[in-house]
Design a protein that fits this description.
20% strand, 2 domains, 390 residues, Rossmann fold
Length: 390
């Protein structure tokens, strides 16, 4: 991310959906928030954060880890502290963030007070810090504060009097954050990176478009230079036959969940711009994942995609849904691609197999002669999940 790319980027995610003393506080979303947001922030090609995740942890551990990240950060590092869970207010309007051992009768003693977070940030040498708060009443975070550190940029999921939707897929605000950062979709000015301001604008638009009655808020205190959270990553090109569209869509969804940006052409070879679309996608790809099926092996379009990728030195990873002996592969594939390791996505172990494929993709180095600006992803948005109030 420009000159600051070599500086450390440290993230602490605090996610609480389970509460031992207050069963009625239970939330489904925070565990998913932790998984999804950690995958997005730790993506080595886009956000590049060193992520520490706390799920359903007690107050002492949470406070210690906040103090630790603030103490470890240097002046030119970037700190990101994120919370997902229940927001609680006292009679003075102060906001508290519920943790696993919160006691409803002693909120001020057993919940995480926001003043502790700002105090640790004031004491830190770091002057590039980001707060992202996903809970009800999040806009009350800075009520009655005793001083905000310079270099702080905060986005809260809603106003001080508003509630936030929680879904089995995660909090509505966090889903918007992930949507904006994954693939750098929030890059509105086209410079190849996502700033905090762009992310805030994106999540506000996302909330409105999905019918959520919440208004994400932002605060900025003497930030010396723009803070960028994500670069546009190189996509993973999906090569497949049209007959295997359902399997390709499942593969795309799985790679997205693991922090990658798939590029998939859905318009077909009969469209007059097929060559232009596909060559654009391959010219910017970090890798080609070939869905190796009988239909793909018989597809002239797939064969052309592989040939072009090979000429551009784009790594190719064949993926099989069913293991097949090498002798059953066509001669052209054996001649040109027999040395490639074939990955199996077995139905019984699909998730674990996809994890191993993701590791293999993550270890690849893109060809040095490929241009840096990626092609747009072609993936239709699905309907929003059912919601409750967190």
């Amino acid at each position: 991310m420009g000159a600051g790319a070599a500086r450390r980027r440290l993230a602490l995610l605090i996610c609480n959906g389970h509460y031992t003393r207050v069963p009625e506080f239970q939330l489904a979303g925070p565990a998913e928030d932790a998984r999804r947001f950690a995958a997005v922030l730790s993506n080595p090609e886009s956000c590049r954060f060193d992520v520490r995740v706390l799920v359903d942890r007690g107050l002492l551990e949470v406070r210690r880890e906040i103090a630790r990240i603030c103490r470890e950060a240097d002046a030119e590092d970037t700190i990101l502290i994120y919370y997902s869970g229940n927001g609680l207010r006292d009679e003075f309007g102060n906001l508290y963030l519920a943790v696993v051992d919160v006691d409803q009768d002693f909120i001020d003693a057993t919940a995480l007070d926001t003043e502790f977070i700002t105090l640790q940030l004031r004491r830190s040498r770091c002057r590039r810090s980001v707060l992202l708060i996903d809970c009800c009443y999040a806009g009350a975070f800075f009520n009655n504060n005793r001083g905000i550190p310079d270099g702080l940029y905060a986005i809260t999921s809603c106003g001080a009097e508003q509630s936030c939707p929680d879904t089995p897929e995660g909090g509505a605000f966090t889903l918007a954050l992930c949507a904006g950062l994954r693939g750098a979709a929030a890059d509105r000015d086209g410079d190849g990176r996502v700033s905090i301001d762009e992310l805030h604008d994106f999540v506000r638009s996302y909330a409105a478009a999905h019918g959520h009655e919440m208004t994400p808020q932002k605060w900025v205190w003497n930030v010396p230079a723009p803070i960028y959270l994500a670069d546009v990553p190189r996509p993973v090109f999906i090569s497949y036959a049209r007959e295997d569209t359902a399997a390709a869509d499942r593969l795309v969804a799985g790679l997205e969940e693991r922090g990658f940006t798939p590029w998939i052409d859905r318009e077909g070879i009969l469209s007059g711009s097929w060559k232009e679309r596909v060559t654009q996608g391959l010219n910017h790809a970090r890798a080609v994942v070939l869905l190796l099926t009988p239909d793909a092996l018989g597809s002239e379009a797939v064969r052309k995609e592989l040939s072009f990728a090979a000429s551009k030195k784009v790594p190719i990873l064949p993926v099989e849904l069913k293991a097949r002996p090498a002798r059953t592969l066509p001669d052209w594939f054996i001649l040109d691609y027999s040395e490639l390791h074939r990955h199996l996505l077995d139905e019984a172990t699909y998730g674990a197999d996809l994890d191993r494929l993701a590791v293999a993709i993550g270890r690849l180095k893109p060809a040095e002669d490929q241009p840096q600006r990626p092609a747009p992803r072609r993936k239709p948005a699905g309907p929003p999940p059912p919601t409750t109030v967190r």
